[in-house]
């Protein structure tokens, strides 16, 4: 009986890093469909065997790349937001602006927002991007709840709605012929949503 096929290695390595960096550069410029594994390994300076040792195939490489992009984006938005705010009440509004600005970046647009759902399937892709948004939104909402800006209430439903709206805005910005104009339009819409949540909670608290 033949032995089972060895799973791709998951441990960090120089080759893995080189492949991810090469794929990010080429796929950002050309898109997933137009990028071949031969081009990736040539840019990375490794063999095809090294690619298939680290990843099952091109889609597996792309999945790892999108996961890395989503996690790095969430951390960056959090750190930049914390560096800019002067009090915790600004967290949600400032974080929203930071995320919308990130949606204008070429690699985020092409890989995470446009190719991501098409290549990985909506459910897999959503599983990568939604948790990032929800964690950031829930963190900001908790600050508003703690200082009394939000009336006591479950935060999960608001976070789900807000994170879903942010994802939809990101896809609309990425697919727009004028991403900067779309960023402004969706930014205004999301800011109105935030203002409504805060004013509605304040009114409820006053009753």
TrEMBL record:
Source superkingdom: Bacteria
Pfam families noted in UniProt: TetR_C_41, TetR_N
DNA-binding region, residue range(s): 36-55
Keyword Transcription regulation appears in the UniProt entry: yes
Keywords associated with the record: DNA-binding, Transcription, Transcription regulation
Domain HTH tetR-type: 13-73
One GO MF term: transcription cis-regulatory region binding
PANTHER family linked: HTH-TYPE TRANSCRIPTIONAL REGULATOR BETI, HTH-TYPE TRANSCRIPTIONAL REGULATOR RUTR
Protein name: Transcriptional regulator, TetR family
The organism of origin for this protein: Candidatus Phaeomarinibacter ectocarpi
């Amino acid at each position: 009986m033949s032995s089972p096929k060895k799973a791709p290695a998951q441990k960090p390595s120089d080759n893995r890093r080189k492949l991810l960096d090469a794929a990010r550069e080429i796929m950002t410029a050309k898109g997933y469909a137009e990028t071949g594994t031969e081009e990736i390994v040539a840019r990375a300076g490794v063999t095809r065997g090294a690619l298939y040792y680290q990843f099952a195939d091109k889609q597996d490489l792309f999945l790892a790349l999108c996961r890395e992009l989503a996690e790095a984006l969430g951390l960056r938005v959090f750190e930049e937001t914390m560096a800019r705010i002067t009090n915790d009440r600004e967290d949600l509004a400032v974080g929203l602006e930071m995320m919308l600005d990130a949606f204008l970046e070429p690699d985020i647009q092409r890989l995470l927002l446009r190719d991501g759902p098409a290549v990985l399937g909506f459910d897999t892709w959503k599983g990568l991007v939604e948790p990032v948004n929800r964690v950031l939104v829930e963190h900001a909402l908790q600050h508003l709840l703690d200082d009394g800006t939000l009336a006591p209430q479950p935060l999960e439903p608001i976070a789900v709605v807000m994170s879903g709206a942010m994802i939809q805005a990101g896809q609309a910005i990425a697919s727009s012929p004028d991403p900067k104009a779309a960023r402004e339009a969706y930014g205004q819409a999301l800011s109105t949503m935030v203002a409504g949540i805060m004013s509605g909670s304040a009114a409820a608290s006053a009753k």
